Amino acid sequence: MTVGTACWIFGDLEKTTYTDDEKLEAISIVANMATHNAIRKSEMVDAMKWLLNKVEALE
Hints:
Blueprint: H1 3-10, H2 20-31, H3 41-58
Helix pairs in contact: 1-2
């Protein structure tokens, strides 16, 4: 997955038609980028909420 695609998915985790595995890959790519200037704070918060919901679903 390209960084551009990862950023696209990352910015729209709740509405995309991508699988959870693809969303996790996108989150990983974004988290490991050298800078996050193009990522909005609200997108970061949404990604954390999405991850927390997935963890809670496992419990």
